[in-house]
Amino acid sequence: MKSGRFSIATYIIFGLALIGLVSRATQYIIPIVVFGVIFLLFKFPPNKWGKSKTTTTRSGRTKEKRTRDATFRVINGSKGSSDEPPKYH
């Protein structure tokens, strides 16, 4: 009666394949770590690490930072009106 599902030769082949995969995997450790760090930097950018949207005043209350809308105005130029023909041909 057999004690396991696989024969001894199958275990030897699996062991050798595992040794081969582990020896090849050591060549890829540095690129995997570099790509992992790049992925984490894209996922969690460093400019968002220390910034918060609220500031604390001296009295201890928090208030949100709000951006002020820019007011746009038209500056009248010295260019002639478009109805007149050009001065130089």
Flag low-confidence runs: none
Report the mean per-residue pLDDT as an integer.
77
The spatial strand order of the largest sheet comes to 1-2
- Give the termini distance in whole angstroms: 107 Å
Shape: elongated
Strands, total number? 2
Description:
This protein has 89 residues and is mostly helical. It has a domain at 8-64. The protein is 37% helix and 7% strand. It has 2 helices and 2 strands. It has a two-stranded antiparallel sheet with strand order 1-2. A hairpin with a 5-residue loop joins strand 1 and strand 2. The chain is elongated and about 100 Å long. The chain starts with 7 loop residues before the first helix and ends in a 25-residue tail after the last strand. The model has no long low-confidence stretch (mean pLDDT 77). Keywords: Membrane, Transmembrane, Transmembrane helix. The chain crosses the membrane at residues 5-22, 28-44. Residues 49-89 are annotated as: Disordered.
